[in-house]
């Protein structure tokens, strides 16, 4: 299964979670807190099966980070082989994707937009152009907007809009130079994700 390219609001309403982590999607959810479709408000369901509960958590996490099923499964397989708590390691691998870091820094307003910026060569890692959205950012890496890209309206608007936003403790950002740094891998308690990753582990371990 490839990456979902349809309306993200539809997925957010279906899962009941702001998977885009944007104010715009949250407004849609506040206005219509039910599943999409003409029967969304009237739909009644019995007790969900254990499988459907685990599948739902997996889908939440996959859509939040906006990765394909194959990428998601491969990252889980890698996390399960590493030392440490599998769920936390899995989240750390997702958080260290370049497109996610670009989004967290406020260079892009969504992860979809971040992925586009990366693919178009607007992002430098340690001074080198990287065009792979899933590139693994390491501790101490510098993430910078390329000089020509600093004049792109979308990027300048995003930086201005988010410059006063509370920064994430595992990231460092200088809006003036449009330069950031990945300080360390985030601990689980630093991530306010509406997902129970243990259920995701159980889904893939079944």
From TrEMBL:
**Domain Small ribosomal subunit protein uS4 N-terminal: from-to ranges:** 3-95
Name any one Pfam family assigned in the record: Ribosomal_S4
Q: Region Disordered: what ranges?
A: 30-51
Keywords of the record, alphabetical order, are: Metal-binding, Ribonucleoprotein, Ribosomal protein, RNA-binding, rRNA-binding, Zinc
**Which stretches make up the RNA-binding S4 domain?**
96-160
Q: Which GO terms describe its cellular component?
A: small ribosomal subunit
Gene Ontology molecular function: metal ion binding; rRNA binding; structural constituent of ribosome
User: Looking at the record's lineage, which domain of life comes first?
Assistant: Bacteria
BP GO terms, sorted: ribosomal small subunit biogenesis; translation
Ribonucleoprotein: present as a keyword of the record? yes
- What are the required cofactors? Zn(2+)
The record ties this protein, via CDD domains, to: S4
Q: What does this protein do?
A: One of the primary rRNA binding proteins, it binds directly to 16S rRNA where it nucleates assembly of the body of the 30S subunit.
User: What HAMAP family does the record tag this protein with?
Assistant: Ribosomal_uS4_B
Question: Assembly and interactions?
Answer: Part of the 30S ribosomal subunit. Contacts protein S5. The interaction surface between S4 and S5 is involved in control of translational fidelity.
| Family (UniProt) | Belongs to the universal ribosomal protein uS4 family.
Query: In its UniProt entry, what is this protein called?
Result: Small ribosomal subunit protein uS4
Source species, please?
Answer: Meiothermus granaticius NBRC 107808
Q: What high-level taxonomic lineage is stated for the organism? A: Bacteria, Thermotogati, Deinococcota, Deinococci, Thermales
């Amino acid at each position: 299964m490839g990456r979902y390219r349809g309306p993200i609001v539809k997925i957010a309403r279906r899962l009941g979670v702001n998977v885009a982590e944007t104010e715009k999607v949250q407004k849609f959810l506040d206005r219509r807190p039910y599943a999409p479709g003409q029967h969304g408000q009237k739909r009644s369901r019995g007790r969900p099966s254990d499988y459907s509960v685990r599948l739902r958590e997996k889908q939440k996490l996959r859509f939040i980070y906006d990765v394909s099923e194959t990428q998601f499964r491969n990252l889980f397989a890698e996390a399960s082989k590493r030392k440490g708590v599998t769920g936390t390691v899995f989240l750390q691998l997702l958080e260290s994707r370049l497109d996610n870091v670009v989004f967290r820094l406020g260079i892009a307003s969504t992860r979809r937009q971040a992925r586009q910026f990366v693919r178009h060569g607007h992002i430098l890692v340690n001074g080198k152009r990287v065009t792979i959205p899933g590139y693994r950012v390491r501790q101490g890496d510098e993430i910078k907007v390329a000089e020509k890209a600093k004049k792109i309206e979308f990027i300048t608007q995003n930086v201005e809009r988010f410059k006063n936003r509370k920064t994430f403790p595992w990231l460092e950002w200088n809006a003036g130079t449009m330069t950031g740094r990945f300080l360390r891998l985030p601990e689980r308690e630093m991530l306010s994700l509406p997902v129970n990753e243990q259920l995701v582990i159980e889904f893939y371990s079944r």
